[in-house]
Fold this sequence. Notes:
120 residues, alpha/beta, five-stranded parallel sheet, three-stranded antiparallel sheet
Amino acid sequence: MFGSPKTKDLTPHQVKASIDAHEILLIDVREPAEFAAERIHGALNFPLSTFDPGALPAAGDRLMVLQCGSGKRSATAIGHCQKAGHSIDSHLAGGIMAWKAAGLPTVTIDTGTGSVLDRR
């Protein structure tokens, strides 16, 4: 495949509904510090800097959806997957920024106490 990867853009609300229905496996390709600071509940971290499509977990009958901060890195990761022969093509359009703009919850760490906080 040449050029840009073929990507299927999912909205934050589509991803949230699919997470709630256990229909997707969400893969966050941001770096570990970004993931630790704030993440979407249920996402797994596979940073783009060390991204290996062969190391991704089996999704079973769920759709694998990639996600990053704004959508650029997840699209790049989709390209890596497609180049490696994987059929992964879906990502959260706009990334976690779009997710938060849609008013959807995230998980953060209280830096003062180390406690996990659900943010709405």
